[in-house]
Amino acid sequence: MYYKIKEPASEAEFKHYYHLRWQLLRAPWNQPEGSEVDDIEDLCFHLMAVDNSNQIIAVARLQFNSDSEAQIRYMAVAKPYRVKGIGRELVKVLEQHAQNSSCKIIVLDARESAVGFYQKLGYRIVDKSYLLFDEIQHFRMIKKLDTNL
Ligand SMILES: CC(C)(COP(=O)(O)OP(=O)(O)OC[C@H]1O[C@@H](n2cnc3c(N)ncnc32)[C@H](O)[C@@H]1OP(=O)(O)O)[C@@H](O)C(=O)NCCC(=O)NCCS
Predict the structure, then answer these.
(1) What is the pLDDT of residue 72?
(2) d(Cα 73, Cα 107) in Å, to the nearest integer?
(3) Which residues neighbour 106 within 8 Å (Cβ) at sequence distance 6 or greater?
(4) What is the mean pLDDT of residues 100-117?
(5) Mean pLDDT of all residues in the chain?
(6) What is the dihedral of CA 13, 99, 106, 57, to 10 degrees?
(7) Are the C-beta atoms of 62 and 97 separated by less than 8 Å?
(8) Residues with C-beta less than 6 Å from any ligand 1 atom
(9) What is the pLDDT, as a whole number, of residue 1?
(10) Quick one: what percent of the chain has pLDDT higher than 90?
(11) How far lies 123's CA from each of 21, 40, 114, 140, 145, in Å?
(12) Residue 49 C-alpha to ligand 1 middle, in angstroms?
């Protein structure tokens, strides 16, 4: 299956990027449009996957918690495109970016349903974290980046 991973660049691309983030991670829990955006977006590294007609099919974000720690957030692949390796590829590029930014560790809060995905990518659970919308249990996971690369 053809897809390409790139950074959203234009205003139109960002609009579609946030819309898909909302559709996949907020709308199913009746959260209003706008609830998918926070106040540090401008400081973050954003990635999306597009199909052969340039439609956005996946989104992901990396934020920087300190000089050495990055965090993956708002990661989602549209349903018809799941389990085709797109999530793995997005995380790989986020990790490369974190490494190029001198980060030593990546943390994230995984939905319970996504814990197995992150475990396959080398992340391990360190704690139970928050409950989103009173129902989605999250788990704090970490991965130390290979500093020998
Ligand atoms: C979790 C998610 C991002 C995974 O993306 P994806 O593109 O489907 O994952 P990939 O195809 O790259 O899968 C990589 C590996 O993880 C496995 N995997 C994928 N989703 C999984 C899941 N939910 N649980 C366990 N394993 C999973 C795949 O089978 C694959 O294993 P393999 O290498 O042995 O073949 C995607 O399912 C999704 O968007 N889910 C809904 C939103 C969400 O939960 N986002 C995360 C918020 S914390």
Answers:
(1) 98
(2) 9
(3) 69, 70, 71, 72, 94, 95, 98, 123, 142, 143, 145
(4) 97
(5) 96
(6) 20
(7) yes
(8) 24, 75-77, 82-88, 110-111, 113-114, 116-117, 120
(9) 87
(10) 95
(11) 22, 24, 11, 10, 10
(12) 14
pLDDT at 38 over 90: yes
Q: Report CA(60)–ligand 1 centroid distance (Å).
A: 13
> Residue 147: pLDDT band by 50, 70, 90 thresholds?
low
Residue carrying the six token digits 């704690």: 127
Cα dihedral angle (38, 40, 44, 50), rounded to 10 degrees?
30
Structure-block tokens of residue 127: 């704690």
If you measure from the C-alpha of residue 77 to the centroid of ligand 1, how many angstroms do you get, rounded to a whole number?
Answer: 8
**Which pTM does this prediction carry?**
0.96
DSSP string, 35-102: TT--TTGGGSEEEEEE-TT--EEEEEEEEESSSSEEEEEEEEE-GGGTTSSHHHHHHHHHHHHHHHTT
Per-residue pLDDT, 23: 98
In 3D, which of 37, 59, 39 has the Cα closest to residue 48?
59
